[in-house]
Amino acid sequence: MSAGTRSRPLPAARAAQSRLPWWAILLPVLAFALLLTLIIGARDAHAAAGVHPGAVEVLRLLRDALFRPRG
Predict the structure, then answer these.
(1) Nearest partner of 66 among 37, 27, 44, 43, judged by Cα
(2) Domain boundaries, given as residue ranges, for the chain
(3) 3-state secondary structure of 38
(4) 43, 70 in Cβ contact below 8 A?
(5) What is the pLDDT of residue 27?
(6) DSSP state of 41
(7) Each residue's pLDDT tens digit, 2-41
(8) How far apart are CA 18 and CA 20, in angstroms?
(9) What span, in angstroms and rounded, lies between the C-alpha atoms of 43 and 59?
(10) H-state helical runs in the chain
(11) How far apart are CA 66 and CA 33, in angstroms?
(12) pLDDT of residue 22
């Protein structure tokens, strides 16, 4: 009688099946939202004096769409 051998999956096959933890997705999203909020909320920035008014309006609409209160 011969003993059966177990074949182990290759490391690449195991890596393809692994899932990201919830915080691996959430942390970059929160960081992006925080930085976007800091950029949009900088009312006293002197460098923003030459910004096109249309760009400011687009950023305000984006901020309102992302951070509107849910009720």
Answers:
(1) 37
(2) 20-43+50-71
(3) helix
(4) no
(5) 92
(6) T
(7) 666 776 666 655 556 678 888 888 999 999 988 888 887 7
(8) 7
(9) 13
(10) 11-17, 22-40, 53-66
(11) 8
(12) 86
